[in-house]
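Researcher: I've got a protein sequence and the SMILES for adenosine-5'-triphosphate. Could you write out the 3D structure of the bound complex as structure tokens? I'd like something to compare against our soaking experiments later this week.
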Amino acid sequence: MLPPDSSRRPALLELRQISKRFSRPLDLAARLAQKLGAAISAQTVHAVDRVSLTIGRGEIVGLVGESGCGKSTLGRLALGSYPASSGQRYWRGEGGTTAIDDLPATQRRAVQLKMQMVFQDPYASLNPRLRVGQAISEAPLVHGLITAQQRDAWLAQLLHKVGLDPSLGERYPHQFSGGQRARIGIARALAVAPEFIVCDEAVSALDVSIQAQVINLFMQLRDDLDLTYLFISHDLGVIRHVSDRVAVMYLGRIVESASTDEIFAHPHHPYTQALIAELPVIGGHRRDYQAIRGEIPSPLHPPSGCHFHPRCPYAMAQCQTLARELREIAPQHWSSCILDGGGE
Amino acid sequence: MSMVQPLLEVNKLQTQFPTSSGIAKAVDDVSFSLAAGEILGLVGESGCGKTVTGFSILGLVDPPGRVVGGQVLFKGEDLLTMDTERLRAIRGNRLAMIFQDPMMTLNPVLRIDTQLIETLQAHQDISRAAAYDRALEALGEVGIAEPAQRLRAYPHQFSGGMRQRVAIAIALINRPDLIIADEPTTALDVTIQGQILALVQALCRERQMSLIWISHDLSVVAGLADRVAVMYAGKIVESGTVRATLDHPAHPYTRGLLGAIPALHERGSRLLPIPGTTPSLLNLPAGCAFADRCAQVHGACALPPPDFAVGHDGPSHRVRCWLNHANSPNRIADAAP
Ligand SMILES: Nc1ncnc2c1ncn2[C@@H]1O[C@H](COP(=O)(O)OP(=O)(O)OP(=O)(O)O)[C@@H](O)[C@H]1O
Ligand SMILES: Nc1ncnc2c1ncn2[C@@H]1O[C@H](COP(=O)(O)OP(=O)(O)OP(=O)(O)O)[C@@H](O)[C@H]1O
Ligand SMILES: [Mg+2]
Ligand SMILES: [Mg+2]
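Model: Sure. Here is the predicted complex with adenosine-5'-triphosphate in place.
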């Protein structure tokens, strides 16, 4: 196996300066209020702001950050399930590097099939009227990856891999527990033998034992098939376990990225430092939880300069105006903080 | 034992689902009680019956599924036999559930403000303006920035974790006496999770709200709950104070759960899942359902395991297992000449 060093892996997918803005048109009541002079304007959510990210073949890139910071949106952009507001996606296949969204439709579909997503919300992504066995085997049958004769044995094997009893394939989505449904989402993504998977909180609904089984399956597929992952999770324990490299997002931007060992040992950006300091300790007993202090930043009106400056203990005057690009502060360690030692 | 009536008392609850291949005994002989202000962590493997337990308490099991036995006493009244009208009045007001899937709470075609305000007005005599102010406050409480702007949005315009938080806000908005929270913070980062935990902790301490916190995250349960109940294949196999249960786990399954946590392992190493797979609820063995995955399985395990106090922390720490049980048939056999 290659060492977990992104520089040694040939790139598979590259996102260049990709952005996504959601603009919400005003509803009738708001338009009326606006006409009457109220200070209401159409809202734009800057969900992802000029993010560049290269993912190597066979690499597992962990993506972490606060709820609402844009992780799922970035995952969907990577997959092309949202059109980007600006920026490009490149796929490095056998035929060299291609801008996916410029490909003719048929070729584009072929590339798209190699990319799958395990959705954060499996219920919404499953058709309630389809037996889950059908839902899982539909795409591989259509694309000729399996034959009708192979289907039953193939399905049983796949369900078994994600820790589900093969007889459950006959059931409908509502007849499952939350964690069972999450595993159906995983089975469906794996069904078309993808090369790249976005796992969006894919193991969050699973108890530790099943989680361990599914994580082992993911790592096994990476070792056997060179499967590549963008692994979104709020659980730093899981991220640390599975990822070769970690990218930290804050309010629409990637603020730091480095190999997993490096980022946990030497977090540079003050936000990353805060995140890692909060790693929960197991075995602790009753504690008093703290409410968030101060203003929670909003992607509707992101702060100027470095988005983190209002919460940053080391903020200086220029942080309010300067939004710096990522720069390499150590080999393969990128940070956007202007302070040389991060916070130190 | 104090004679104070518990807020909630669940006795021998049993819930079953008929399926094409047999009857699934999703909840089988579950009993526990909860005092006012108390927090119970309900943990266990995926599919073990945690959600169905919550649904059964609230009368939300969809046919053909059915609660086939037991009692659910809420302030002394049995919710299972209560007329639907009265149950509906209590539900969402004195008794609320935070669903594992936030879209079970949220209506996709209604704005967030409408949903919060309607929940308030359904159970309280409150003006629209006052309800709006409460809604604004409730959204801020769950850590959503610019609540005034966000109130006008629809659920699909929120991130997964934001939807989860709105569902929490809706469940808490009428300040119920009992909340059943089903994996409420699964997708939330530690900061936001801390905000939610601080909120429910304050409600339990200051307003004597009781809470059933369903979760597979043992670190949160350890930090939040007073007591914990561990479920396996429809039954509670161990329960007690958090300290007794997590420091001195008596059931091999509880010990297995504690051993499979990623942060405790070296990066990239294989994690230690509990060997074997979850048994099918359609044909559970007569004896212990965990037996064929248990490292300490022995002859007695073919018989229904006894439910007894293990002694850590007095009578409240109970386990359903033959190990260390005085009358284990094995011990008797071993002791015989
Ligand atoms: N369809 C949409 N329309 C409008 N705004 C959206 C839409 N989807 C996402 N957003 C907004 O974009 C921002 C980022 O959302 P995203 O779902 O990417 O967050 P996330 O990092 O995945 O959060 P979480 O951890 O809570 O799932 C949020 O402020 C959200 O409200
Ligand atoms: N409508 C149904 N029909 C048949 N079986 C059902 C139905 N609903 C739930 N079950 C089964 O009952 C069992 C218990 O489900 P429940 O949702 O309570 O699990 P859970 O402990 O909440 O798991 P998770 O952590 O995965 O959410 C599961 O094995 C599930 O497959
Ligand atoms: Mg998300
Ligand atoms: Mg559940």
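Model: Residues A 174-180; B 17, 19, 24, 26, 44, 46-52, 65, 100, 216, 281 surround adenosine-5'-triphosphate (ligand 2) (CB under 6 Å). Residues 100 and 184 of chain B are 6 Å apart (CA to CA).
Researcher: Great, I'll pass this along to the crystallography team.
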